[in-house]
Amino acid sequence: MELNDANLQSLTEFLRKTLDPDPTVRRPAEKFLESVEGNLNYPLLLLTMLEKSQDTVIRVCAAVTFKNYIKRNWRIVEDEPNKVSDQDRTAIKANIVNLMLSSPEQIQKQLSDAISIIGREDFPQKWPDLLTEMVTRFRSGDFHIINGVLRTAHSLFKRYRHEFKSNELWSEIKLVLDTFALPLTELFKATIELCQTHAADVNALKVLFSSLTLISKLFYSLNFQDLPEFFEDNMETWMTNFHGLLTLDNKLLQTNDEEEAGLLELLKSQICDNAALYAQKYDEEFQPYLPRFVTAIWNLLVSTGQEVKYDLLVSNAIQFLASVCERPHYKHLFEDQNTLTSICEKVIVPNMEFRSADEEAFEDNSEEYIRRDLEGSDIDTRRRAACDLVRGLCKFFEGPVTAIFSGYVSSMLGEYAKNPGENWKHKDAAIYLVTSLASKAQTQKHGITQANELVNLNEFFVNHILSDLKSPNVNEFPVLKADAIKYVMIFRSQLPKEQLLQAVPLLISHLQAESTVEHTYSAHALERLFTMRGPNNTTLYFTKPHLSFLNLNLFFKAIMRSFSLLQESIVPYIPTLIGQLTHKLLLVSKNPSKPHFNHYLFESLCLSVRITCKANPTTVSSFEEALFPVITEILQNDVQEFLPYVFQVMSLLLEIHSNSIPSSYMALFPHLLQPVLWERTGNIPPLVRLLQAYLEKGGASIAGSAADKIPGLLGVFQKLIASKANDHQGFYLLNSIIEHMPPESIIQYRKQIFILLFQRLQSSKTTKFIKSFLVFINLYCVKYGAIALQEIFDSIQPKMFGMVLEKIIIPEVQKVSGPVEKKICAVGITKVLTECPSMMDTEYTKLWTPLLQALIGLFELPEDDSIPDDEHFVDIEDAPGYQTAFSQLAFAGKKEHDPIGDSVGNPKILLAQSLYKLSTACPGRVPSMLSTSLNAEALQFLQGYLQAATVQLV
Amino acid sequence: MAENAGLENHRIKSFKNKGRDVETMRRHRNEVTVELRKSKRDEHLLKKRNVPQEESLEDSDVDSDFKGQNVTLDAILQNATSDNAVIQLSAVQAARKLLSSDRNPPIDDLIKSGILPILVKCLERDDNPSLQFEAAWALTNIASGTSAQTQAVVKSNAVPLFLRLLHSPHQNVCEQAVWALGNIIGRWCFFRSAVCVCVCVCVYIILTSACPGDGPQCRDYVISLGVVKPLLSFINPSIPITFLRNVTWVIVNLCRNKDPPPPMETVQEILPALCVLIYHTDINILVDTVWALSYLTDGGNEQIQMVIDSGVVPFLVPLLSHQEVKVQTAALRAVGNIVTGTDEQTQVVLNCDVLSHFPNLLTHPKEKINKEAVWFLSNITAGNQQQVQAVIDAGLIPMIIHQLAKGDFGTQKEAAWAISNLTISGRKDQVEFLVEQNVIPPFCNLLSVKDSQVVQVVLDGLKNILIMAGDEASTIAEIIEECGGLEKIENLQQHENEDIYKLAFEIIDQYFSGDDIDEDPSLIPDTTQGGTFNFDPASNMQTKEFNF
């Protein structure tokens, strides 16, 4: 590529096309540029264009293209060809600094980025004159140029802040210091002087203050690894000036913007960081300056307003004080009672106040509010900084600080009492103050684990928290309600049990509150309380009797009441309603920001489907017609928030079909097996249910037209079975496969299924797993016969069948719960006892009577609900994190399914009849086995069954 | 040897999983040889010793002459080349006196006047020891100035003559020569850049060959001229204390510099002398002797072994409790360097009951001593399990933790290493002991410091503690969460440094995600190309017999 006008012209045209909104124009142009970027002079053509083109848009476009080109190609990777010719490299390095400095800001930024990318590779060895070239520009006097240099230097040096020390790194820093430190210092001094000369010229000041901010950032980078000799020798200059800048104010630089931090704030924040760096790392050298900085920063805090734009500055400043006040040798700076009082009064309390910005978040951006307030992502907030300062001060001054704040708390509560409507924010601050003062250590699992003994948490609860919880109007003062709920939640390990019990029904009533924060907190608090453990950690803190008075359905009852009102009148309007609902759904799926709204939307969809299809099942197709496009779109765009709902709606629709599966569903089937869906816990229950519906309605279709998907389906089973939390879902799926798939379609997979189950049984069995396992093997036995079960076990490992009988079935079957599950086990075991020859005449025979005894136990004895100590929580179905808990749709519910059905009315009778059949096949053996080892009680029960079935054993 | 190598190998292997190898655990005091900081610590050694004017009877008459005559530089210069021995002596003496004045001796003026060659010439005058003495004294004081002034002396070809003077039968002359050499060697070692020039000139003039390199080569050049033997021969009971101080001071300067260290033979020659000097009651001599040992022990395991073999260690260790801080500091550095060596070398120090001195060092009012003491211990906790146990048995763990919590930043940093190393080399019960001593809160506190390396060391340590805890990991995780450590680790997932955020992510992922380890890794299916989980009936995953 020659450096000539023709090439410039043609490149310009291609660049212009890359800006075209039409992809058929844009894409080829982009492709072309990519194809020529390996050519000699290509980067130089771009540089020429960004310098000389008449069209500003083309200039900027060339700059961006150039930067991206550098980013992709500059690094020389070992064993790969050099993608930029040496000639171009040299030319670029020779010109780029000049070009950057003489370009307008938009282009300057791109080139500055490009320089730092090149610098990262080439500086210092392969670009030795870069620094000197930059430093000479300091003398230009043109701050547009100077800021360009500073910005570039900042992007080159900022990695010193996080890289590990090494000889290589330190040599580079030393080199930088040798050329850069002195000119930077001179520039710093000169800039400050210029600020004084131009104190009345706002435009000049703006430029100068950006320089100062950049200089301060460079200071931070250059001083990060260790204290350089140069800066130690010049500490006086730097620190005196930093101190001066901290205390400086200039009306001209104050901005009217409430949100965005201005230049003054940015500069001062950086200076706070610089001071904090020195205080932390170079304490010995910095000691003489520290008290001055403490005073200056403190004054800064006292005089800074509540606007959001000051947040970063204030939190940086408070964090500085917090880190200094807990050092033993600075204790004296804070010790004085007046100092402490004034820090508490003027720094801490004002920054704990609930601001209008917080109020807005509480109302309009509840997720963000919750994340900050509850989950501790409030690192840079003022409240958080103030809270850290309280903790820091408490290290040495817990008594005095507690006393000072007690006064404040009472006075704020007093204000509130005078006029709650007006002064509720005072109470909020009081609660926050008590919380931050009292909490010394905290975990998710237990809340606050260590509290300040000087704060009477129970008294505060009784006098100030309970009243808010008890207030009959749950929607009044939602912030205070949320505070009160949070108080219960975080101090749950500190408050007496009777108080918590008193709080539980109150928390439930807050589930109905309109405020998202409030009802989310209640749900969260309840969940936390119910999972609390007793002192020995093995039992739940609240046992069933404690909570028997509760009606947990309260919440859903409230919703259902409003829906059932609709029920009678809704049917005629369904077509219109569906249209509107799907339209709404399409809209919100673009931005699913309001979880509760979404939830209700889906609830109403489900309710519409149910009400209509109950009357006329054929209407399901009109729903499908309306909903499938939206559903497909949601699936394609992977709208995570909606997927659990969509699966439930699909299940509901599919279950309405009578024994066939529409092709529209089959088309979606492969998508449901995608691993990414199964990585999200919230998807698992609704997806399993949906797959079960697929199997129930279309087991044969799958075996026929989608047989290649069977490994993927079983793969899902395998994925679920690997997890203690989800294994029962895996069994649901497996049971459906056994029940509904044609046997020949899965015959080749059976052995591996059992191997996996045995593996899990071996490595990490839990009670839940065993229960599900027992139900499954008995279902298998019912479906395929006892011989098939015995054979497959023994084909995996000799005598396996006996081992499973002896070690798993006989001792554990008593634990199986649920009438359907018990029935499956009873029928399955009956088959093993009576239809399996190897039980009669091999070494398994010794297990025959114990197995019968276990079966009679299953019929007659109470269920064994004991659970080993270490797995209390595994057993809670769909353990509620609030995400999943809320996506369970009440109106998409599923009916109970009994795979055995009416074919076996009474399993006891079946047992009696089967034994009779067996006894006639081998006369004399059955009675003799019964009389020798079945215990008397069991025998008596058995006689009863035989009588009821009117049979007699022979 | 073979056995040792095996052991070493084993250790490296056993550390593999814990992320740090022996090399990085045993840390020399300055892992990075490039320094950004001002070098302050060794200043006392480098201070030039100008020999001040002492009022003495001998001098008084010359003095009055000198004052009376109001001698000019020109006159001195002229007289110093006089054939008249008396005039010449008094001129050289006058020059020396000018150079010995307390404030601003006119060194540059004298150099400019061209007196150097004259003074150097006087050094050759074996027939006139007084003249040699005065000339040496004058040259010493010139060499005590700036590096350029030292360089001027070197240029004047004085070095070989000074060395020659070491053999002079006249003690005052010898002493003066030693003094001057000290200044020169010291200067060379300190001003490395200047040294280069010095040597160039030196070698050019004396050996008419090219400049070989920088500092240590100069030292070795002087050594090669044979300075050591005559120097050491001065060490005998009759030597005056002031002279012995100077001899020791030159020895320190000979031992300095480790790139490369002084020649083995020289070290072998010097060590017996140091073993004698370490008994000396004079503080200056003692301090210099111990610093010399600290330099020698800073030169790699081979040199450490030579020091150990000299038998000096049992006499070095008790100096840790010397009443002079200067002695303690130097001794701490020397033993600290030794324990950067192998486990066996470390054990030699431990066998001298070294740990009994540490309660005092760890509570010493000087922070620098605390810091070096913790550094020392960090290299013991990097050792074998018996050595770790020795630190525990000496009751030092709570004190290290105290420094971890309350020390100044440098000390906290060393304490972080000490703890982290222990989590790597310690047994389960040793790490448990650490946890019982409540190490976690102050350890976690360091996760927010502005030093990537410390953050990494702490994360490593926490991860090891969690691994070691086995089934109890959740208890440890809870302690970490309670003290605010979890939050800090969470924030580190945003750290700019890749190693740090990966480590933080790993810890969160393994110990803080969900209540327990949910999935059985051996059962999780692979994902196929086609985008489903792979259920492979042929995989036959059963590896061992099932037994429930």
UniProtKB/TrEMBL annotation, chain A:
<dbReference type="GO" id="GO:0005829">
    <property type="term" value="C:cytosol"/>
</dbReference>
<dbReference type="InterPro" id="IPR013713">
    <property type="entry name" value="XPO2_central"/>
</dbReference>
<dbReference type="GO" id="GO:0005635">
    <property type="term" value="C:nuclear envelope"/>
</dbReference>
<dbReference type="InterPro" id="IPR016024">
    <property type="entry name" value="ARM-type_fold"/>
</dbReference>
<comment type="function">
    <text>Export receptor for importin alpha. Mediates importin-alpha re-export from the nucleus to the cytoplasm after import substrates have been released into the nucleoplasm. Negatively regulates fluid secretion and plays a role in fluid homeostasis by down-regulating cftr activity.</text>
</comment>
<dbReference type="Pfam" id="PF03378">
    <property type="entry name" value="CAS_CSE1"/>
</dbReference>
<dbReference type="GO" id="GO:0006606">
    <property type="term" value="P:protein import into nucleus"/>
</dbReference>
<keyword id="KW-0963">Cytoplasm</keyword>
<dbReference type="GO" id="GO:0031267">
    <property type="term" value="F:small GTPase binding"/>
</dbReference>
<feature type="domain" description="Importin N-terminal">
    <location>
        <begin position="29"/>
        <end position="102"/>
    </location>
</feature>
<protein>
    <recommendedName>
        <fullName>Exportin-2</fullName>
    </recommendedName>
</protein>
<dbReference type="InterPro" id="IPR011989">
    <property type="entry name" value="ARM-like"/>
</dbReference>
<dbReference type="GO" id="GO:0005049">
    <property type="term" value="F:nuclear export signal receptor activity"/>
</dbReference>
<keyword id="KW-0539">Nucleus</keyword>
<comment type="similarity">
    <text>Belongs to the XPO2/CSE1 family.</text>
</comment>
<comment type="subunit">
    <text>Interacts with cftr.</text>
</comment>
<dbReference type="GO" id="GO:0006611">
    <property type="term" value="P:protein export from nucleus"/>
</dbReference>
<dbReference type="InterPro" id="IPR001494">
    <property type="entry name" value="Importin-beta_N"/>
</dbReference>
<dbReference type="InterPro" id="IPR005043">
    <property type="entry name" value="XPO2_C"/>
</dbReference>
<dbReference type="Pfam" id="PF08506">
    <property type="entry name" value="Cse1"/>
</dbReference>
<dbReference type="Pfam" id="PF03810">
    <property type="entry name" value="IBN_N"/>
</dbReference>
<keyword id="KW-0813">Transport</keyword>
UniProtKB/TrEMBL annotation, chain B:
<feature type="compositionally biased region" description="Basic and acidic residues">
    <location>
        <begin position="18"/>
        <end position="29"/>
    </location>
</feature>
<dbReference type="InterPro" id="IPR024931">
    <property type="entry name" value="Importin_alpha"/>
</dbReference>
<dbReference type="InterPro" id="IPR032413">
    <property type="entry name" value="Arm_3"/>
</dbReference>
<keyword id="KW-0007">Acetylation</keyword>
<keyword id="KW-0677">Repeat</keyword>
<feature type="region of interest" description="Disordered">
    <location>
        <begin position="1"/>
        <end position="29"/>
    </location>
</feature>
<protein>
    <recommendedName>
        <fullName>Importin subunit alpha</fullName>
    </recommendedName>
</protein>
<feature type="repeat" description="ARM">
    <location>
        <begin position="311"/>
        <end position="349"/>
    </location>
</feature>
<keyword id="KW-0597">Phosphoprotein</keyword>
<feature type="repeat" description="ARM">
    <location>
        <begin position="114"/>
        <end position="158"/>
    </location>
</feature>
<dbReference type="GO" id="GO:0061608">
    <property type="term" value="F:nuclear import signal receptor activity"/>
</dbReference>
<comment type="similarity">
    <text>Belongs to the importin alpha family.</text>
</comment>
<dbReference type="GO" id="GO:0005737">
    <property type="term" value="C:cytoplasm"/>
</dbReference>
<dbReference type="InterPro" id="IPR036975">
    <property type="entry name" value="Importin-a_IBB_sf"/>
</dbReference>
<dbReference type="Pfam" id="PF01749">
    <property type="entry name" value="IBB"/>
</dbReference>
<keyword id="KW-0813">Transport</keyword>
<dbReference type="InterPro" id="IPR002652">
    <property type="entry name" value="Importin-a_IBB"/>
</dbReference>
<keyword id="KW-0539">Nucleus</keyword>
<feature type="repeat" description="ARM">
    <location>
        <begin position="157"/>
        <end position="184"/>
    </location>
</feature>
<dbReference type="Pfam" id="PF00514">
    <property type="entry name" value="Arm"/>
</dbReference>
<feature type="domain" description="IBB">
    <location>
        <begin position="1"/>
        <end position="58"/>
    </location>
</feature>
<dbReference type="InterPro" id="IPR000225">
    <property type="entry name" value="Armadillo"/>
</dbReference>
